[in-house]
Design brief:
The complex is a heterodimer of chains A (163) and B (103).
Chain A: H1 2-37, H2 46-49, H3 54-62, E1 66-68, E2 72-75, E3 79-82, E4 86-92, E5 97-104, E6 111-116, E7 124-129, E8 135-143, E9 146-158
Parallel strand pairs in A: 1-9, 3-9
Antiparallel strand pairs in A: 2-4, 4-7, 5-6, 5-8, 8-9
Chain B: E1 5-11, E2 15-22, E3 44-51, E4 54-61, E5 70-76, E6 83-90, E7 95-101
Antiparallel strand pairs in B: 1-2, 2-5, 3-4, 3-6, 6-7
The chains are: A alpha+beta (163), B mainly beta (103).
Chain lengths: 163, 103
C-alpha cells in the first residue's frame, strides 16, 4: 500500500518535472519564434487591423465600444469619384483626446488608420484612404478613456481595390 | 537617394501645423497585377513624429491608407527653428527617417 502510493507520488513528481520542462521549452520556442514571423512593427496592432467588423476592430484596438457623439466631426466627401484616394479628416471638441481611429466599414478589413494623440497635440488629423465601394465611414475618438464616434456615408463611383 | 519623406512644419501662434507626404506604394494585398497575380500587401505600419525627444504624433496604418500617404496634424510647444523628426516603418521591415526644421 505505502509502496504503491509512494511510487505513484514519484511518478507524479517526475511527470510534473517533465511538464515544467516542456513549459519552459514552450516559452523559449515562443520567444524565439515571435520576432521571426512578426516582420510587423512591434507596436503595430496586427489583430485590430485584421478585423472585418467595426465592433471587433474597436474591441481589439481599445477593448471597448463607441457611442455616437456630435463632438466628433468627420469630414468626408459625399461622393468620391476615385475610391483609391478619398480625403478624410477627423476633429473633435472633446477634452483629453488620446486616440483617433478611422474605419471604412465596407473594406475587406474595417480599420484603416489609428492615431495616437499625446497631450499637447490637437485632436485633429487629415489623411487619404482607399475605399472598395460605397461605404459608411466611422471616426472614433478616445476621450477621458471613453470612445465616441461619428459616421458618414461616402458614395464611391470607382472602387479603390483595383480589378 | 532622395528621401521618401516630404514634410512641412509651420509654427503658428499657438500650434505647429505639420503636413507630410511619404512615397510608398501602400499595396493593399487585394489588387492583381497585369498577369492576374495578387500583389502582396506592402504598406507602412507606423509613422512617428518626434519633437524635443518626445513623440508628438503616432500613426498606425493598415493597407487601406492611400498610396503615397498624406498626413496633417498640429501640436503645441514647438517654435520656429526647432527640429521635427519623422520616421516610418513598413510591413517588410523597410524604413526611412528625416529631420526637418520647423518654419
Amino acid at each position: 500500500m505505502t509502496m504503491s502510493s509512494d511510487a505513484a507520488g514519484c511518478a507524479r513528481r517526475s511527470m510534473l518535472r517533465g511538464m515544467a520542462g516542456l513549459a519552459g521549452l514552450g516559452l523559449f520556442e515562443a520567444s524565439r519564434l515571435l520576432p521571426a514571423y512578426a516582420a510587423d512593427a512591434p507596436d503595430w496592432p496586427q489583430a485590430a487591423f485584421k478585423q472585418k467588423s467595426e465592433i471587433d476592430a474597436l474591441k481589439q484596438l481599445y477593448g471597448k465600444n463607441a457611442e455616437a457623439s456630435d463632438k466628433v466631426t468627420l469630414d468626408a466627401p459625399e461622393i468620391a469619384e476615385n475610391g483609391a484616394v478619398v480625403p478624410i479628416a477627423v476633429t473633435s471638441s472633446l477634452p483629453n483626446v488620446t486616440a483617433i481611429a478611422v474605419l471604412v466599414v465596407e473594406n475587406p478589413y474595417t480599420l484603416a488608420a489609428a492615431y495616437q494623440i499625446p497631450a499637447g497635440t490637437r485632436p485633429a488629423v487629415a489623411n487619404r484612404l482607399k475605399m472598395a465601394k460605397t461605404t459608411k465611414v466611422v471616426a472614433v475618438v478616445e476621450s477621458d478613456g471613453k470612445l465616441y464616434s461619428a459616421s458618414r456615408d461616402v458614395k464611391v463611383t470607382v472602387g479603390g481595390c483595383g480589378g | 537617394m532622395a528621401s521618401t519623406i516630404r514634410v512641412r512644419a509651420v509654427a503658428g501662434a499657438d500650434t505647429t501645423e505639420v503636413q507630410s507626404l511619404i512615397q510608398h506604394p501602400m499595396d493593399s494585398g487585394f489588387v492583381k497585377d497585369a498577369a492576374g497575380k495578387l500583389i502582396p500587401p506592402h504598406h507602412i505600419e507606423v509613422v512617428r513624429f518626434e519633437h524635443g525627444g518626445k513623440t508628438v504624433f503616432t500613426a498606425l496604418w493598415g493597407p487601406a491608407v492611400a498610396k503615397d500617404p498624406y498626413l496633417k496634424f498640429s501640436f503645441k510647444g514647438a517654435k520656429k527653428g526647432d527640429e521635427l523628426k519623422v520616421s516610418w516603418l513598413d510591413n517588410e521591415g523597410a524604413s526611412d527617417s528625416l529631420v526637418a526644421k520647423i518654419q
